[in-house]
Amino acid sequence: METEKTQISDIDTSPYDFKYEEKGFYRNKAGLTPEIVEQLSRDKNDPEWMREFRLNALKIYNELKEPEWGPDISGLHIEDIATYVRPNTKMQGKWEDVPQDIKDTFEKLGIPQAERTSLAGVGAQYDSELVYHNLQEEVAKQGVVYTDFESSLRGPYADMVKEHFMHLVKPNDHKFAALHGAVWSGGSFVYVPKGVKVAIPLQSYFRLNAKGAGQFEHTLIIVDEGADLHFIEGCSAPKYNVANLHAGCVELYVKKGARLRYSTVENWSKNMYNLNTKRARVEEGGAIEWVSGSFGSH
Prior knowledge:
The protein is α/β, with parallel strands linked by helices. The protein has one domain (22-295). The protein is 22% helix and 29% strand. The chain has helices at residues 34-43, 48-63, 100-108, 111-118, 137-140, 149-152, 158-164, 175-183; strands spanning 26-27, 85-86, 121-126, 129-135, 145-148, 187-192, 202-207, 214-215, 218-223, 228-236, 244-246, 249-254, 259-267, 272-274, 277-282, 287-295. The strands form 4 sheets. It has a 6-stranded mixed β-sheet with strand order 4-3-7-10-13-16. It has a 5-stranded mixed β-sheet with strand order 5-6-9-12-15. The longest helix is centred in the N-terminal third of the chain and has 16 residues, at 48-63. It is globular. The mean pLDDT is 89.
């Protein structure tokens, strides 16, 4: 007879505890130096303002002390963490073009099935980069923008992104916000135009497969006046015997009379230090429904 699970600690997280070998992946040196940050910026072809932002955030990181609040992070040593791991593929717009091992990962997590049945758009990030991104045509025709964060820096909404990037969460808020500002990679940008109601959710899923690595995705969502959106995020990682780090950042802007439902579930393992920062700004007459669950990490 199956035992009824009555406590959070009893939840079986084994469905998320699988991993694949890093075949043909690029991994930067462990640690955090100006040279590492400069190389990351070059690899991403950052605009000049972002390169300067990263280096300034690194300076702030080195000046700030580790926070005394929160969990015990004495087992986390940034000199042992690879802050950037690039999978062996570019971002794809068709699921069948994603490499098989990465595709197997997300299929085990149910992502393609969820997209087929109940989602308006999906982004899937593996380690430090998005490997798949798609937005249904009818939603795009409404003027909704849903793209990987790197593309948003160079597209028609680049000025909007620059105006809002790390304005709710600033690098000098705490040491790990500064770390994020220096080495962020991946994530999503969403913009819903005035009055547009997105009937079914968008979802981003972040999988950290690499051992002894960090994931630093940035999510920026702007729901304009009178618009409506439901956005879902999910995160998971396998279990290792060394520390991994997740220090993502989420910034949510809800304009006048707009509504945002933001749902996130993170299924980590005990070797994961989950030190992300999320904030929202809601203007007059706006509303946000925020549901968050995070399991298994420090």
